[in-house]
Amino acid sequence: MDKAKSLGIELLFLPSYSPNLNIIERLWKWTKKDCLNCKCYGKVAEFTEAINGSLMKTKKTWTKGEKPIQIWVGDYC
């Protein structure tokens, strides 16, 4: 913390469990829904391909400044 302070960085801590504040949790929620919703994969390679395909559909919009970072995934825009 001292190093961050000396560099002029303000650390903001999230509550111990805050999935709505943690952007990666939203991404994984949408990815799981896209890849696992009523689907069964016979091989690990098929599952891996589905995950990679879902992540490739991800559109990222990073908004800096006063607005929060927003991520839209695939058809969930």
UniProtKB/TrEMBL annotation:
Alphabetical list of InterPro entries matching this protein: RNaseH_sf, Tc1-like_DDE_dom
Question: Which residue range or ranges hold the Tc1-like transposase DDE domain?
Answer: 6-38
Q: Which GO terms describe its molecular function?
A: nucleic acid binding
Q: List the Pfam families hit by this protein, alphabetically.
A: DDE_3
Q: What is this protein called?
A: Tc1-like transposase DDE domain-containing protein
